[in-house]
Amino acid sequence: MRKPVVISTLVLLAALACPLTTAAQAAAAPPGPSGTGPAAPTQLKPIQAVILADESGSESPTDIGYEQAAAISLFNGELSPRSEFSVLGFGSSNGPGETAVDIYCPFITVDNAIDRARLTSCASQIKARTHAQGWDTDHEAALEQAVYQLTRPGPAGMTKIIFLMTDGVLDVSNSPQYGPPAVRNRNALLLIEHQTLPAAYRAGIQIWPLGFGSEIGQMGPAGYTGKQLLAMYAQGGAGASSQCPGENAATPHDTIVQSSAYLAASLLAELSKARCAAPPKVVTVPVTPMRPVKLSVTIPPIATDGMIEVDKSNPQFQVAYYGPGGQRAPAAGQQDGQTFTLVGIGQPVESMHIADPLPGNWEVVVTDPPGVRAGHVTLEAVWGGALEGTVNAVPAQPTAGSGWDIQMQVLSRSGFVTSAAALQDVTATVRIAGSFGERTTRLSLGTHPANGMFSGTVALPADAHGYVEACGRISGAGLAADRRCLSSMVLPATGWKKITVIVKFPTGNTVHPGGYLTGQVKISNGLAAQTGTLALGELGPNEQVTVSPAQVPMPVGQSSFNFSLRFAPGTARGYAGGAIDVMDQAGTLVGDTTIGVTVVPAPGLLSQIWWVLVLAVLLVLAALLAAYSWQRRPDPADVRGLVARLAWADGKLGPTAVRGRKGRQLDLVVVMDPDRARTRIRRGNPGESNVTVRRDGSHLLVEGKNLPLRTAETGRLVPIEGDFGIIVNDEQRHKGRRAPTGSPRAKTATPPSRTPLYDP
What does the alpha-carbon distance between residue 55 and residue 38 come to, in Å, rounded to a whole number? Predict the structure, then answer.
């Protein structure tokens, strides 16, 4: 248990060494222009999405299967690995023991195969509810829970989206929380209109509803058809993403399909619109035994991220992906500058994600292995462009009454895009704003097609004056729009034919021998561009001072630059006075200022670093305290407090229960017997247990030899075989504090069992 303390101390000492080294280097090096390291590659903006799946009584097993497949298609089809999804199922809450919304998983990212598998497991829990589980359609509770989750603190910079799948209209006629029976649907609709949708709008949450089935077009108890309600939901949330505000398809709207069989393709299309990606290309073909089927899709040069998804009627179908050069893509890794990630291998839905895909025709080959029945496959391809733009103006400072040339270039991860063919679907515009108002001009590739530069001229009025701003914007289908701005000052048409210079330098400062002081020069040049000179004058014989740079650029218009004075190590102590002169190209003095500096001895080493020593002691103490606290902290995965017991669907409980001991896993042996009264549960060893229980945050993970890994809630039955299962309660959750609550209509947590008999 001492190893963390040693590691923390070593890390701390290394951290302390870095500031000392940096300070020493800063003292020895002359000041220079500020800068940054290489810019990070442009990435697609991630999304944070909640999937709402209708589980009402009208849902058939086929509908549920398609809802599950649609959710999985959504996970696999997302282009940004930083995106997060949460899966919820909803029906209604009509009485005790019922909840309108079931949260099958919190927000989980899609950045690796394990997380995508967790999301797939969540989607597989979507079910058709029975009458006893609340099988009406409570859109209000579902939307309210989704808005609540998306407004909780989380990663910044994400597009927030709700995807709603439903086959019916709002119906809460049997839900007493909405008031008397006659007004329940009206009250629920009022809550949606005046509370839930405005909250989504304020939080910037898009709502993309997807309706299916015959009931969508019918009039509901609330006085609206399903289509009318879904249109209201879409229009009540936030509008199109700020990255593609001009794309009409990107504005949230309702989508109605005839059958749940179209859910996956339609939901993937909604995802593409919501995240400013190109609409997916969908192709469905039959697969016959032992005869490979070839499908193709074209990825344009402007794409920076792509995804090819294959929906297989039989998971045993084998799929291969080939790039434009005919080379087969690997399941993972890099090839020709591309990065590949294949997810869902051996599953009904698999997808190949490609970062920086090669443009051109991609081929997908599907093979039906021997002994596998014929079927069909559906190919869906989505691509997006994470591009940036640069904006430039000539001249840098425009003159009133003249034209101002604006230029933009498109930048991808690999550099500037220079191909006119790649830019044919890209639009570039510039908005000029100043004392004259605003003017917008579309830029063209016509004058610079060879280098991929968009350009255009904006005429400034003769009375323009003051500051002016030029904001360029690139956009296009499948592209995340980028906006870049620059500011300048409008020069008057006449009466501005001279050079003026302002020199700023700190006075009354102190400097050590061998040290530096910096100043600034501001130039207004109404003549031709030229090079001036920066010089020192009126210095004493013992004042060893030099100025850098000695040459001064003087472009037309307004400009500024920094300079530095270096006081040599042999500079005499005491007051150092003089002047800084700026001359134009002809040698005429156009600006100056005085120097007033006191040269003082450099302080001793101890006086310079005493604060570092004090800080080091404090950091060491803090590290030791943190390490001690870390060693003493409780393990959130400890299964102590968990109590497992047998249970049947009719409410019957077994005679014994097993209490968790210290550790991260509760091992159980369920001894089944045809006589239910003799079926029992006991504690097992890791090698012999047939059921294990672990903690996963506020949820539980239950797994067994014949029981796939699933997420479970405390106090709820986890089926094992037939109507038989186990119930796991958490005594720690209820001991000494209240259980957390969610929605106002959330189900009250089940208290722990009071069984006195425990397996030793």
Answer: 50
